[in-house]
């Protein structure tokens, strides 16, 4: 049996022309036939923004442009770029990263929450027997994953396998987004492994990823025809062992890809010397600030769910204001909880997740397993004050308006679109952005 192949390319910056040339070489070296094919390309826009601060967080647009250009030049009949959003309709992501002008004349944007879904059974599932996924994902002749390699407090690392989560609508995405997250990721991978991976390791991300990842300049493209092999090489480059990342370990054991570098044909092997140990994400909720009191379950307080959501949001406040200057806040999370003081102020208390439901009257309760991230964020902003986001109000507005215009046109044809899931309602969202703008118009604390 032919060994899976991973190709490392030296790429010091985001020069789209150079990336296109190297991606053409990659496609040829892998023997991938794209001529006359419909190709669905999936980047990662997990924190959609045009700001330079998200360079280590999302797939770089110039890298995406280079990959798309190469696919076009190699004869692809139709190029599709699909992504979703965790903060509003999918169109919010496309507007907020500024990708739509880039796609004109090159590829068609695919807003995944507007696509027809099909239910697919998972062979030999670890935890989730069925998924509802976009039909266009399965119908495309080729599926190309273009992830950003970074650490991830929910799942240790974002590699190719984690990039598939963007295929799911919110209801489907949040199911098993807890201590079973790795098993869910492994099951989702089985639906349709990528035919080609071109991973963004030009600037990777370490530390408190995904949202607060810090840049690491590896200067590499990491590509291949087997995502497990690509992720195995990415583990080496970032200092992880595959056994540390449960979803990768599960898929290797199930025979979906190689577990060792010796089982992989590596082109550009000398570039493995750029490997370094990335700073891992810290998901602890204790001792972060004298202003933060956390009452945490001893058995259930999932990094892949509630605990990860709280830590990710708190990190943003700590980064902005410092541990001594954030507003006071209490958090009740997980189960079983030893005790909660009787005098806890409910006005500054977040009770998060179904495990903590017995305490729902002790503060602002956000239920669910896993809770809706945007709802958690809005409650934390009410307690701890507005927090400057890297997304622009005008981009969020344009994304909502475009989506609602699409809904209207769809309903006029007699069809009924599914409800928007990844949002808190346009009025509530805009009020939050306006409150933020007023707050930062009055003060500008230093980092």
The helix content is 25-40%
> What name is given to the CATH topology of the largest domain?
Rossmann fold
Helix tally? 14
Oligomerization state: single chain
Domain unit count: 2
Task: Please give the radius of gyration in angstroms.
Answer: 22 Å
CATH architecture annotation of the largest domain: 3-Layer(aba) Sandwich
User: What do the pLDDT scores average to?
Assistant: 93
Main pleated sheet: 10 strands, mixed
Broad shape = globular
Description:
This protein has 447 residues and is α/β, with parallel strands linked by helices. It has 2 domains: 5-274, 3-Layer(aba) Sandwich (Rossmann fold); 292-384. The chain has 14 helices and 16 strands. A hairpin with a 3-residue loop joins strand 8 (148-152) and strand 9 (156-158). The longest helix has 20 residues, at 393-412. It is globular and about 65 Å long. It starts with a strand and ends in a 5-residue tail after the last helix. Residues 436-447 have low confidence and may be disordered.
């Amino acid at each position: 049996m032919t060994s899976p192949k991973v190709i490392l390319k030296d790429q010091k910056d985001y020069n789209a022309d150079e990336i296109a040339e190297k991606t053409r070489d990659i496609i040829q070296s892998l023997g991938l036939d794209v001529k006359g094919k419909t190709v669905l390309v999936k980047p990662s826009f997990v924190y959609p923004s045009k700001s330079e601060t998200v360079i280590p967080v999302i797939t770089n647009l110039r890298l995406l442009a280079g990959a798309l250009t190469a696919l076009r030049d190699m004869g692809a009949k139709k190029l599709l770029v699909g992504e979703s959003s965790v903060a509003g309709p999918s169109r919010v992501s496309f507007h907020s990263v500024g990708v739509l002008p880039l796609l004109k004349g090159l590829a068609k944007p695919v807003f995944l929450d507007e696509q027809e879904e099909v239910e697919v059974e998972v062979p030999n599932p670890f935890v989730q027997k069925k998924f509802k996924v976009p039909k266009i994902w399965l119908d495309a002749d080729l599926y190309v994953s273009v992830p950003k390699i970074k650490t991830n407090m929910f799942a240790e690392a974002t590699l190719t396998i984690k990039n598939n989560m963007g295929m799911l609508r919110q209801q489907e995405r949040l199911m098993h987004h807890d201590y079973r997250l790795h098993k869910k990721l492994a099951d989702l991978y089985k639906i349709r492994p990528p035919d080609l991976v071109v991973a963004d390791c030009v600037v990777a991300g370490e530390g408190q990823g995904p949202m607060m990842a810090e840049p690491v300049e590896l200067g590499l493209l990491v590509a291949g025809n087997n995502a497990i092999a690509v992720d195995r090489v990415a583990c080496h480059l970032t200092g992880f062992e595959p056994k540390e990342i449960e979803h990768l370990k599960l898929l290797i054991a199930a025979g979906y890809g190689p577990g060792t570098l010796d089982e992989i044909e590596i082109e550009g092997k000398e570039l493995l010397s750029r490997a370094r140990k990335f700073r891992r994400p810290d998901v602890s909720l204790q001792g972060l600030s004298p202003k933060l009191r956390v009452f945490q379950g001893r058995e259930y307080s999932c990094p892949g769910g509630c605990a990860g959501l709280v830590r990710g949001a708190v990190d943003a406040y700590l980064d902005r204001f410092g541990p001594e200057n954030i507003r006071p806040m209490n958090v009740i999370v997980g189960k079983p909880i030893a005790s909660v003081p009787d005098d806890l102020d409910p006005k500054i208390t977040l009770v998060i997740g179904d495990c903590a439901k017995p305490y729902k009257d002790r503060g602002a309760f956000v239920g669910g397993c896993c809770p809706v991230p945007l709802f958690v964020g809005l409650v934390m902003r009410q307690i701890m004050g507005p927090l400057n986001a890297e997304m622009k109000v005008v981009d969020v507005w344009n994304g909502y308006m475009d989506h609602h215009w699409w809904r209207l046109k769809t309903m006029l044809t007699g069809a009924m679109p599914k409800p928007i899931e990844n949002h808190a309602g346009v009025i509530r969202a805009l009020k939050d952005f306006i409150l933020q703008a007023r707050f930062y118009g009055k003060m500008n604390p230093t980092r």
